[in-house]
From TrEMBL:
Listed name of the protein: Sugar ABC transporter substrate-binding protein
Protein's organism: Deinococcus psychrotolerans
Ranges for domain Periplasmic binding protein: 30-293
Transmembrane feature ranges: none
Matching InterPro entries: Bact_Solute-Bind_Prot2, Peripla_BP_I, SBP_2_dom
Cleaved signal peptide residues: 1-22
Amino acid sequence: MKRPFALSAALLSAFLGAQANAQTLSNTTVAFLMPDQASTRYEQHDYPGFLAQMKKLCPTCKVIYLNADGDATKQQQQFNSAISQGAKAIVLDAVDTAAAASLVKRAQGQGVKVIAYDRPIPNAKADYYVSFDNEAIGRLIATSLVDHLKKMNMPSGSGVLEINGSPTDAAAGLIKKGVHAGLASGGYKPLAEYDTPEWAPSKAQQWASGQITRFGKKIVGVVAANDGTAGGAVAAFSAAGVNPVPPVTGNDATIAGLQYIVAGLQYNTILKPSEIVAGAAADVAVALLKGEKPKADKTLFNTPSKLFVPTLITAENLKAEVIDKKLNGQPIIATAVLCKGYEDACKKLGINP
């Protein structure tokens, strides 16, 4: 007769625990702080993905969304504002990952959980880090370019330009590390490299224009760390009258980047649907608020981390990976959106507008 009682007690304990968790999370405030508007992904993908998952996990939770517009001081003010508004967990994609260390320590000192998002915070141990594998991204785009240049029989002694991301972004540093490893796998030396302040496409374009004047036909390719800086490079070559534009890499699979691949102006990009990482960040935030310990794949910068595997996209697999595959039952990008203004180029890739 004791076993049924023990089972009932266990069930009662689980029920009471679930109720306690629900009460703990009821009306809890969670902040989602993004770094800039230079990339459209934050408004179009990251925040909607985070909000949707939070609504599933905690319908009564309040979500604060703020974007720092590339201003570290503004982000610090937003961070402090989130805490003053009662945020118990903050998902932070830092403008300046070094300066963000003090924010993490301040929040944790007040019992607020901090999830580093997309960009790690090397100088402080956040409660968790969620991202795609940035070093793998750099290695993928660079190795892909090297292989492509070999197939094009580009002569030895020619080289590539390397356009990195923001010097204040630790994720950009990881991408750069991966790029260096990828380029080392082939015979194409970096002619010059540039850390792009704030990831600004206009600054990438300005720098690339100077290098085109300096190196001319020695440039056989460009390793750009994201689609925005890739677009800046393409614009520089086009303005200089270079036709065809040398192969240019990218990252983020933005609509503009994918359209450039369709048009033959960009060689590759990285598909990393932000909704996936945003949803994972919501999972982690809720787990931490419940007092649970989210499972980690690895430890990066002394922080338990979940790193997703990115997918390399070129014209060869764009249709299969971006159009034919679905995310939450929907195409990753609608054909009508991708092919607007690029109808003939889409048809050449087997994509019917």
